[in-house]
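=== Structure Prediction Worksheet ===
Name of assembly: unnamed complex
Input type: mixed (protein and possibly other molecules)
Chain count: two
Listed entries:
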Amino acid sequence: MTITANDFKTDLKPVWCPGCGDFAVLSSVHRALAAAGCQPHETILVSGIGCSSRLPGYVETYGLNSLHGRALPIATGAKLAAPRMTVVAVGGDGDGLAIGGNHFLHAARRNVDIAYFMMDNEIYGLTKGQAGPTTPSGDRTKSTTYGNPDPSLDPCALAIAAGASWVGRGFSGDVKGTTDLMTRAIRHHGFAFLNILSPCVTWRGEEQHKELRAQMRPLPADHDVTNREAAMRFTDEHDVLTTGVLYEVARATVLDQLADIERRARGNSAPVRSDFLAAFG
Amino acid sequence: MSEDITFTMVGSGGDGAVVAGDLAAMACASQGLHVIKTEAYGPQIRGGESSSTVRVASAPITAQGDAINALVVFRFADFARFHSEMTLAKNCVVLHEPADVPPAELAAYRCVPVAFAQIAKDAGAPAARNIVALGILAAMFGLPFDSIRAAVRKRFRKRDAAVIDANLRALDCGITWNGAQFEAGPRFDGRTPSASRLLMSGNEASAFAALHAGCSFFAGYPITPSTEILQLLGEWLPKIGGSCLQTEDELAAIGAVVGASFAGAKGMTATSGPGLALMSEMLGLSSIAEIPSVIVNVQRGGPSTGIPTKSEQSDLFHAVYGGHGDMPRVVLACCDVEDAFHATVDAFNIAEEFQLPVIVLSDQAIAQRRETIDAASLVHEVIPRRLALEPDDTYRRYAITEDGVSPMTVPGMAGGMFQTNGLEHDEEGRPSSMFETHERMNAKRYRKLDAIAEKYPLFRTFGADKPELGILCWGSSAGPVQEAIETMNASGARAAAFVPRILAPLPAKALQAFIDSCERILIVELSYAEQFHRYLRSLVDLPRTGTRILKRSGGKPLSVVDVIEAAKVLEGVTA
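=== Predicted Assembly ===
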């Protein structure tokens, strides 16, 4: 039986505000899981905390909406324990770059074979409008009365620098394009990071959606995805939103490394209890 | 009459005090003797002072040696750092380099100069003064020469034959030096050897327990004094197809364990106080989302960085109370090395059957000492996870049940999908902020503790049947308490101890019955703030008069004499 996007839908009603970009992202997730050939019972969806981290509740898989910032370690443990499962982590910019920033570096460095979709709205939505790591410098938010004193961070630049083997950028309003990027991310062998600009109509204004759509540009046709420096040129952009696969290389994943370790550790015969106790006399 | 001796070697890094202690302990264990071996270090990463203390006995022992019969000091400057933490027997023999003058406080003991370095040099092994000293001690107490030779060969098996021969010559020079002349303590040479025992540390026992219990995933971050568990499982798990992940921090370690467990694997992490503090939030998720997790917390001096290399029993509050919200969890405590094995397997059994976080409290004294145990004792029933084997459309992940346990499904099981979270949720896992749901689900989750209390009333009691004096303690304090009770009861006292091996839920009924059967109660713990005493006060009734606390900060191990002295103060008990 062919699995379709509908097979991934649940009957739980999203808590998101009308007009939230995350609705479109959810739709892309349903479609991409089907397009990538995933089975609902062989898929694990993990999120942190935030508006976007509610997403696993709306997808019929094994889903866990976990703790703020901790989606990636949980997804890593799940993937190592059940390598046959498709593991996808989702969350927001505050969740993944602020409180969970350390895990982002290390998941990318390890090249854990999971896809990570970051719904980036440049604001803390669930706590009602405070500045986050991707909020532009100078922006007034509820926590930055006099303007955001901190520069913003480009998640794709961070992912590439930390060693992610697949890095892409999408826009929630472009459902077809985002679905395609998600499908490729899920199929990628290694840590696939997809930054999805997903407007927050409530705290970033109705205009954010229109602005992002106007700024959206595809990558140039001659972009070399294996060239790190070339990929970096499409990070830290201003007034432009370049979408597509910025970077893609083949690199051993942590599971590949562990499989190799297992081969070397096992030797020729499976050890028994007495082999482990031999070191103790 | 059982033979029982303790000897200590003190030196700087490179003197090999610890290696010599290991060799003696291994040799004695192989002859079926009972051994407890401890080490102490200064704060330096390499070099610096170190000491190794070995207690050997022909009958079972539960505490490290109280009174040192022979002390080998390669440099008195190093000894000065440890002196306040060591007690020498009255007839202790102190062996030292001739040029190094014993300090005044050792004047009362027999100080004997031995040219360790020169003897080693003459034997062709200039670095082997520790081996020379080992030979002298072997002759002094009649320790098994051939087993020590075998231990030396095993230790240096990867070195040139010439190195091994030189060390064996150094050993023989020590043996023929005539250590027997001092009569520093009982001798073991009249004894018939019995079956070889294993020599293991608490951390090694915890790691082995994980394998025994079927753990296939470990994640951890290095932290003293638990790191050996990470290291050993990093070596062992790949051999059986499991995975070991050294994470970026403790937040990730417990996160990865929860993820692995969610995906169907038995997962464990190990840490110490500061790491447990970082893991607290995730334990809340493990509790509310009902995902099994096992945490071995090896206690050290705290708070903050505290004294990382020394033992204390001050993470009790954090383990039983730490966390946000009403969070059912189970806390087990091990009393010795063998018990570290059993407690860890129990932790997996309880976590898997009841779907909650289980913390095993070990401590540095157990985790890093090596003691002899019978290989045959390392068996323990393993209980599998309660799975919903054929989930259908009516499957509810958090179905309300009598004992609070809802059968789990794991990824890969068709029809078993569920979406869960750290939000309060209904029986299907859907988020809910309703009071009724919160109350009902709290009740469901807390019912599991009742079932656990019923099934796992884990405690040890020992001593007199109708005790006058009842001693309450936990963890590594149980060792010296047990020997203190044996000593006191041998001189006519009627003392007994109750040692809970599960601290939450506390076996309060059995404990209360024990307390009520005693006239006086002594509580023994290594916590300045009396955490155990205060915890007991919240759950059982202690006699208003006739309850005494023996407590102090960690950093100095509790001794048998400490317990006996404290017991003496309680009227009517003679030691």
